[in-house]
Design goal:
Structural class: alpha+beta
CATH superfamily: Creatinase/methionine aminopeptidase superfamily
Bound molecules: 2-amino-4-trifluoromethylsulfanyl-butyric acid, cobalt (II) ion
Number of helices: 4
Order of helices and strands: HHEEEEEHHEEEEEEEEEE
Radius of gyration: 17 Å
Largest sheet: 5 strands, antiparallel
Distance between the termini: 23 Å
Strand content: 25-35%
Strand order of the largest sheet: 8-7-9-14-15
Number of domains: 1
Shape: globular
C-alpha cells in the first residue's frame, strides 16, 4: 500500500514497533537449551499484551505466531517443543503483527552462544545485504535496484540468494504488490513511489540457492544442507531517505 496520511502512518509504525520490540526481547531469550516453542509462546503473549495480533498464525494454515528457522532451515520453520537450541546454532525468527488494521513484518537471525566464523560472516553479510537493499528504497528507483543491491552484496561475498521466496509489499495485507525478489528479474520491473510500504527480506545461503520444503509443508531448507540466514525490515519508500519502521 501507499501510506498517504499521518493516521495510517502512526498505526503502521505502531505495528512495526511491536514487531521490533518483540524480536528484541526474543533475542534476549536465545541460549542453548531453550526450545523454539518457548520463543513462540513468549512472542504470542508479548504481541497480544501490546494490543497487536500475530498475523502468521492461520495464514494459509500456518500453525504458529512466529517462524523459527535453525541452521540449514531457510524460512518458515515451525516452532516445536522438541527443538532445543544448542551452542553454535543460528536461528532466524520472523514475526508479523497487525495493529489497528496495519501490518508490520520483520526477521532477524541470531547466534546461539558462540558460533563459527562462517556462521558469523553469513549473518553479517545477509544483514548488510538487507541494508544495501533498503538504501535503494527511494522514489524514482525500481524494485530491480533493490534486488541488484542485495544480490550483488551476497554474491560478491561468495554466497547465493534464495529465488523461491521473495520480499513483498504490505500494509493492510501481509502480502501485497509488488514482489521484491532478492535477485534481478528484468521483466515486470516496478517503479518505487513515495509512501509505498515494502518488506525487504534477503535469504542468503552459504552454498547453492536451491531449497526444498520438508514434509510438514512449510519448513524450507537448503537443498545442499548449507547454512542459511534471513533478515527482514518493513520500509516506507521516501523521496530521499527510506524510512525503516521495524528498527528500535
Ligand atoms: N516474512 C514471511 C513472509 O512474508 C513470513 C510468512 S510466514 C507465514 O512471507 F506463515 F505467514 F506464511
Ligand atoms: Co515478509
Amino acid at each position: 500500500m501507499i501510506i498517504s496520511n499521518e493516521d495510517d502512518r502512526k498505526n503502521l509504525a505502531r505495528a512495526c514497533r511491536i514487531v521490533a520490540e518483540t524480536l528484541y526481547a526474543l533475542g534476549g531469550m536465545i541460549r542453548p537449551g531453550v526450545t523454539t516453542k518457548e520463543l513462540e509462546l513468549f512472542a504470542d503473549e508479548m504481541v497480544r499484551s501490546k494490543s497487536g495480533v500475530p498475523v502468521f498464525k492461520g495464514y494459509r494454515g500456518y500453525p504458529s505466531s512466529i517462524c523459527t528457522s535453525v541452521n540449514e532451515q531457510v524460512v518458515h520453520g515451525i516452532p516445536s517443543a522438541t527443538r532445543y537450541l544448542k551452542e553454535g546454532d543460528i536461528i532466524g525468527i520472523d514475526l508479523g503483527v497487525k495493529y489497528n488494521g496495519f501490518i508490520g513484518d520483520s526477521a532477524v537471525t541470531f547466534p546461539v552462544g558462540p558460533v563459527s566464523d562462517d556462521a558469523k560472516r553469513l549473518m553479517e553479510v545477509t544483514s548488510e545485504a538487507l541494508e544495501h537493499g533498503i538504501a535503494k528504497a527511494v522514489a524514482g528507483n525500481n524494485v530491480s535496484d533493490i534486488s541488484a543491491a542485495v544480490q550483488g552484496h551476497a554474491e560478491d561475498n561468495g554466497y547465493s540468494v534464495v529465488r523461491a521466496f521473495v520480499g513483498h509489499g504490505l500494509g493492510r495485507e501481509l502480502h501485497e504488490e509488488p514482489q521484491i525478489p532478492n535477485y534481478v528479474v528484468k521483466k515486470n520491473d516496478y517503479p518505487l513511489k513515495e509512501g509505498l510500504v515494502l518488506a525487504i527480506e534477503p535469504m542468503v545461503n552459504a552454498g547453492g540457492f536451491e531449497v526444498s520444503v520438508l514434509g510438514d509443508g512449510w519448513t524450507a531448507v537448503t537443498a545442499d544442507g548449507s547454512l542459511s540466514a534471513h533478515f527482514e525490515h518493513t520500509v516506507v519508500v521516501r523521496d530521499k531517505v527510506p524510512e525503516v519502521l521495524t528498527k528500535l
